[in-house]
């Protein structure tokens, strides 16, 4: 718990700085010990950041957040709706002893649904069905003849998203194998998955963005996959060597790729990923394909405020050394 004392030696309220978008959902529900301050622009955030004991500094463009974090010298706990924390100054937060909670799990439902949608879209050739409708052309055969039933999926990342994908796929009779750092039934370790890539019809990436995951899917990993296997990425574009992926798709050495994330974002016009055969680019929309994200984030933040005031751990807490 963090608080200050005013000139009368009575406990002062804890300054909590949040984006103004959260205020309608928070204002009537924050406890009395909270002094809620709101910002509606990056400039206002920079003005308020030095006052913050607790901060929820999220901006639409996250690159504007690190300068505010640097200026927030009183900060003890920083909250974010973002699951990925690669753009946060983690070393500085660790040095200052700041607790960081992130948005892990907030979007797990919709992202997992997006993964299944992508698998079905490719399996049934649904993109070609939509294009035929645009042309007002009646198809007499299905452009996609794959069934999810009986196929096998490798899920790299056994967190909220990966675990939920595995549970959803069970309903389609897909055998899902998760990759996780610690042993668990039905999972394999981080040193075992590469040797088994050729066993799977779907390779699904749901790992955090860390130095250890950058480029983890490269030319050798793509070559080890089945020729009709499909790569699905809902992690970060940096996890995949895009040049190697484009080359594999052009050579028809891969069955397809469903890419909700890429590098850079937004993907510029004329980039090969837009037109390479077999690539489905969904513009990082998976987490936005719902209307519950902000409400879930507010509910979690309020629950964490209560825990913070009681001196209990807040969650989900980011490991500032590991980066997730």
* CATH class descriptor of the largest domain: Alpha Beta
Shape: elongated
The CATH superfamily of the largest domain is NAD(P)-binding Rossmann-like Domain
Mean pLDDT: 94
Number of helices: 11
Stretches where pLDDT is under 50 for at least 5 consecutive residues are: 1-9
Would you tell me which CATH topology of the largest domain applies?
Rossmann fold
According to DSSP, the number of beta strands is: 14
Helix-and-strand structural type: alpha/beta
Order of helices and strands: EEEHEHEHEHEHHEHEEEHEHEHEH
Number of domains: 2
Strand order of the largest sheet: 10-9-8-11-12-13-14
Helical amount among residues, as a percent range? 25-40%
List the helices and strands and how they pair.
Elements: E1 4-5, E2 11-12, E3 14-19, H1 23-26, E4 34-39, H2 42-48, E5 54-56, H3 65-71, E6 77-79, H4 90-96, E7 99-101, H5 108-123, H6 126-134, E8 152-156, H7 160-170, E9 175-179, E10 187-188, E11 202-205, H8 219-224, E12 230-233, H9 242-250, E13 256-259, H10 272-275, E14 279-281, H11 293-309
Parallel strand pairs: 3-4, 3-5, 5-6, 6-7, 8-9, 8-11, 9-10, 11-12, 12-13, 13-14
Antiparallel strand pairs: 1-2
Helix pairs in contact: 5-7
């Amino acid at each position: 718990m963090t608080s200050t004392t005013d000139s009368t030696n009575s406990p002062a309220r804890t300054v909590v700085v949040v984006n103004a978008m959260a205020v309608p959902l928070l204002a009537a529900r924050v406890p009395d010990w909270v002094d809620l301050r709101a910002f509606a622009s990056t400039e206002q955030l920079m003005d308020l950041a030095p006052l913050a004991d607790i901060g929820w500094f999220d901006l639409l463009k996250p690159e504007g957040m690190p300068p505010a974090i640097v200026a927030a010298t009183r900060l003890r706990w920083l909250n974010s709706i973002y699951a990925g924390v690669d753009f946060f100054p983690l070393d500085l937060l660790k040095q200052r002893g700041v607790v960081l909670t992130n948005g892990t799990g907030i979007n797990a439902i919709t992202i997992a649904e997006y993964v299944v949608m992508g698998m079905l879209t490719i399996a049934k050739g649904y993109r070609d069905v939509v294009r035929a409708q645009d042309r007002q052309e009646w198809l007499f055969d299905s452009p996609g003849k794959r069934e999810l039933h009986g196929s096998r999926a490798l899920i790299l990342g056994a967190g909220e998203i990966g675990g939920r994908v595995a549970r959803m796929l069970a309903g389609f009779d897909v055998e899902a194998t998760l990759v996780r750092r610690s042993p668990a039934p039905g999972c394999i370790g981080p040193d075992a998955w590469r040797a088994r890539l050729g066993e799977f019809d779907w390779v699904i990436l749901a790992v955090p963005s860390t130095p250890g995951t950058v480029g983890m899917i490269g030319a050798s990993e793509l070559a080890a996959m089945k020729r009709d296997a499909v790569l699905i990425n809902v992690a970060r574009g940096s996890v995949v060597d895009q040049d190697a992926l484009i080359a594999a798709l052009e050579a028809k050495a891969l069955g397809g790729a469903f890419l909700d994330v890429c590098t850079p974002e937004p993907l510029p016009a004329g980039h090969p990923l837009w037109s390479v055969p077999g690539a489905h680019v969904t513009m990082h929309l998976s987490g936005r394909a719902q209307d519950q994200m902000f409400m879930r984030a507010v509910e979690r933040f309020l629950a964490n405020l209560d825990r913070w005031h009681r001196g209990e751990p807040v969650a989900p807490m980011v490991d500032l050394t590991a980066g997730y």
